TrEMBL record:
Transmembrane segments: 67-85, 142-161, 617-638
UniProt xrefs under Pfam families: Phlebovirus_G2
Keywords for this protein: Membrane, Transmembrane, Transmembrane helix, Viral envelope protein, Virion
Chain ranges of the Phlebovirus glycoprotein G2 fusion domain: 155-478
Protein name as it appears in the record: Envelope glycoprotein
UniProt keyword annotation of Hydrolase present: no
Domain of life: Eukaryota
């Protein structure tokens, strides 16, 4: 039973963009209930509940006053530590100086005393003048040594190429019937826009319009199963046998191979995927053997399943194109006819007197389509896995099973280097890799659906489907009987009435541009350029929000963008501040990825950090002045303290002399 109460609400980890949680509940290995929960986005700054943390420092715009106070505290603390270190160093040098001076003076006094005694022994009445000169020279020499020490919608523009052919049929009664067939090749407008054709009679008089609008552009994976795998952990079984006992006879270890099944091990150990080894061990009574001959240490590394779940690793060596188009024919004086066509590349689709054939498809390189995937029959995750037959101990797919039955029986292949063993006297110590795949299906960064700025990768009928937005270009041939064809394009202009940007920079999820665009009439597509950044918008008479995902590497986005339409160019200003989210934190809450992955840690935009405080110059200057006054006060106190210490040292030194 599933009970949902309202007494307590736990806030899930949100992202900047909208995402979906799907929770599965099982009973007796059957899915009893599934809940789908859509969580709306939440402002990122409301998720920061700490002040002395890296997230707060990386996003100072979330709380400007707190950031300024924290900046002052950090400056004060840093300078205090530096000042304290220099002070300690100064004390050490001063103490070393004083001690060295005392040692040298004591040594000089001792030498002076010895020399004086020698002179007194040789001469009962030494000249006082020489004695004074000698003693003065010693003092000057000692002083020099001491001194020297500290120094050291509407119609989009379409390219058209057309040809007409008239074919006539003569009947037995002498009548003649001619049919005009017009063929046209045109570039189909991107998804969401319309390609319009003007229909004319044989006298070139307009009769109506034909519109073609792509509703769906997708690729469906033709799945190729690479292998099956399971979650497992490695274990080691050891058995020491004395000479001539059990398997330790004859050639002993020479006859043992990695596939040998020894009676010294349990049946489940021998049947599990693994490797058998043998090494010599000590004999004699001291080692528990009767014969003083080398004993045998048998050990086998084997895999133990940690769950009953079977996973399939597959790739998509080829993709099937799926196109869905809305065809609308409007003839003057007649009702319009609308039809949804499912198009297949290279195959003509016929409806009424119309025939459409997709003859050319162009798409940019998408590395994501070459990836490998893993499935637990319910969910699909994009992974980087080992190639079939080439199991690597450090990659997903280190255990490979030929089919599902073998995986069920745990009859699978392991790489030999999955374990490193160190034989000891009676046991073998091991260090092994393990494969626990359950955690992969908790990583929002890799589990389907995955989205980039122009493609959505999702699960459909237990396979992968890639839906395109704007990047694919199509060329189609349209054959129509009884009409001539001309293209129609609306010469409209497009104006962005409202635009905003939010999200994060230097992150996999990217930033979200929300722009409302209005056309002068009709519906059409607009091409937007913001310096090197380019994307497309749909313009309508009644503005609707367009959402575009981009990837940016700076915290502050401030650009003047141009909107290109058939009727001309307009400009708009887009400005916003993006948040910084570390890749490790983002991977726990996001399911949007970039086309090109980078495993290196993404850098924090320090320029925005300093620019933020530059525009808050009054507050920043006040904080720096407060820090300066505090440091000056501390400096004066410390100087007075050391003055007292120095004065005390001088008095001690004077009394010593």
């Amino acid at each position: 039973m599933l009970v949902i109460g309202h007494a307590a609400t736990n806030m899930l980890q949100p992202t900047i963009l909208k995402f979906i949680f799907i929770h599965g509940h099982w009973k007796s290995d059957l899915v009893s209930k599934r809940i789908k929960l859509e969580c709306p986005p939440k402002p990122f700054c409301e998720l920061i509940h700490c002040y002395f943390c890296l997230t707060f420092i990386e996003n100072p715009h979330c709380a400007p006053k707190g950031a300024l106070i924290l900046l002052g505290f950090i400056i004060y603390l840093s300078l205090s530590i530096i000042y304290l270190l220099f002070t300690i160093l100064r004390v050490i040098i001063a103490c070393s100086y004083t001690c060295s001076r005392l040692i040298i003076l004591c040594s000089l006094q001792g030498v002076q005393y010895i020399i004086r005694r020698i002179i007194n022994l040789r001469s009962s009445s030494p000249p006082e003048r020489k004695h004074r000169y000698f003693r003065s020279a010693l003092r000057k020499t000692g002083a020099l040594i001491v001194i020297a020490i500290p120094l050291s919608y509407a119609c989009s523009i379409s390219t058209l190429l057309q040809a007409s052919q008239s074919s006539c049929l003569q009947y037995e009664n002498g009548s003649l019937e001619c049919i005009l067939t017009t063929s046209a090749r045109l570039m189909v407008a991107p998804q969401g826009q319309q390609s319009c054709l003007l229909l004319k009679d044989m006298n070139s008089k307009p009769l109506g319009t034909l519109t073609i609008q792509l509703k769906k552009i997708a690729l469906r994976c033709k799945k190729k199963s690479l292998y099956f795998t399971r979650s497992f952990q490695m274990a080691v079984a050891s058995s020491k046998r004395c000479s001539a006992a059990g398997s330790c006879s004859g050639n002993k270890c020479t006859d043992i191979t990695i596939d040998t099944k020894l009676p010294e091990f349990e049946k489940y150990v021998n049947d599990a995927p693994g490797f058998t080894y043998c090494t010599e061990s000590c004999g004699c009574a001291a080692c528990g053997c009767f014969l003083c001959d080398s004993a045998c240490l048998f050990y086998r590394t084997y895999a133990r399943p940690t769950s009953e779940k079977i996973y399939e690793v597959f790739s998509c060596p080829s993709w099937e194109y799926l196109f869905e188009a809305i065809i609308n024919i409007r003839i003057t004086g007649k009702e319009s006819e609308q039809h949804i066509a499912h198009l297949i590349a290279g195959l003509p689709y016929e409806w009424n007197r119309l025939k459409i054939t997709l003859i050319a498809i162009s798409q940019p390189p998408i590395p994501l389509l070459t990836a490998k995937f893993i499935s637990d029959e319910e969910r699909i995750v994009q992974i980087d896995a080992a190639a079939p037959g080439q199991a690597v101990a450090t990659m997903i797919g280190k255990m490979q099973c030929a089919n599902r039955d073998d995986a069920q029986k745990f009859n699978c292949f392991l790489p030999k280097d999955i374990c490193t063993c160190q034989p000891r006297e009676t046991v073998a110590a091991r260090q092994c890799e393990e494969q626990l795949l359950e955690h992969l299906f908790t990583l929002k960064e890799h589990i389907l659906p995955l989205e980039t700025h122009d493609i959505l990768l999702k699960e459909t009928d237990k396979t992968v489907e890639a839906q395109f937005k704007h990047s694919m270009t199509l060329e189609a041939q349209v054959d129509l009987q009884g009409f001539q064809i001309s293209t129609i394009a609306d010469k409209n202009t497009c104006e962005v009435t409202e635009a905003s940007i939010s999200g994060c920079y230097n992150c996999l999820s990217g930033a979200l541009i929300t722009a409302s665009s209005k056309s002068s009439f009709g519906t059409g597509g607009a091409h937007v350029e913001c310096d090197q950044l380019q994307f497309s918008l749909i313009c309508e008479v009644n503005p609707k929000a367009n959402k575009v995902i981009i990837h940016y590497d700076r915290a502050k986005f401030q650009k003047t963008c141009s909107v290109h339409c058939p009727g001309g160019k307009t400009n708009f200003h887009l400005e916003g501040i993006l948040n910084y989210i570390d890749a490790e934190r983002l991977s726990n809450i996001s399911n949007i990825v970039a086309e090109i992955r980078n495993t290196e840690r993404r850098s924090f935009d320090l320029s925005f950090f300093f620019e933020f405080f530059k525009f808050n110059i009054i507050s920043t200057t006040s904080i720096i002045l407060v820090v300066f006054v505090c440091l000056t006060t501390c400096h004066v106190c410390i100087r007075k303290y050391f003055f007292c210490v120095k004065f005390h040292q001088k008095r001690t030194f004077r009394n010593f002399r």
